[in-house]
Amino acid sequence: MAKFIQRLVKLKIISFLLLLSPTLALASVPIKNTSIPGGIAVIDFETNHSNPKGYYSNVPLYLQRVKNQHWQALVGIPLLTKPGKKEITIKDFSSRNFEFEVRDYSYTEQHITLKGKKKKYVNPNAAHMGRIKKERPLLSDARKVFSDAALSFGLFDRPVDGVTTSPFGLKRFYNGEARRPHTGLDFAGDVGTPIKAPADGKIILTGDFFFNGNGVFIDHGQGLVSVYIHMNKRLVEPGQLVKQGDIIGTIGQTGRTTGPHLHWVVYLNQTAVNPNLLLGNK
Asked: Which domains does the chain have, with CATH numbers?
């Protein structure tokens, strides 16, 4: 009986560690190496260290153990990155650098016309700028969240079933004025359509923001953060744990939009990457 209890205690301890430690993860994110601006570079390395660390431009990276001593670093590449050789640093028993090459890639253009009340989102007035400046630190801090342990494993599900109306990476022009490239995916949908969490995670920020309208940020661990904006309703609160498939809100047209849709963004090492690269049910 005593031996049985000891075994049970050991099993519980192991299960607890599996939940907490990325180094003991039983499943990894099986994505393809897409080393282009807005893509994800997958860099393989070997180590027998139990908890290595990785950095790109001094920002911590998502690391996953694939099998035994075989590890991978997943590196989000900023959309404005110029082609050429880049490098990451892996720290285990020592500090090592690994090179990778970013290939050139051209995204298409999109021209959008905002009319009536929506024109305020092209050139905000002083009052709106004051609000925007107050919101920036909140949004920036949410993108920079880094949890040591992975909170979800495996590929993402689609948050909604609607068709993609605007792909990732579009060079956008509002009323003829150039703006930042499109850093997410837009999905069509009627107001009130449920939005599902694509993977397990923790809600780290919700709110009504000037450009984004109603938004929700989910931390999936190790710098992997997903964002849902222009929502009609938010159905979750900061600190809440969600499971893949849980309803987190509904589609709306709040903020800078021309109609109801979901704008979905995925950040990896504080960088917006193409969400399609993480989808398992494209």
From this structure: 22-102 (2.60.40.1590), 109-278 (2.70.70.10)
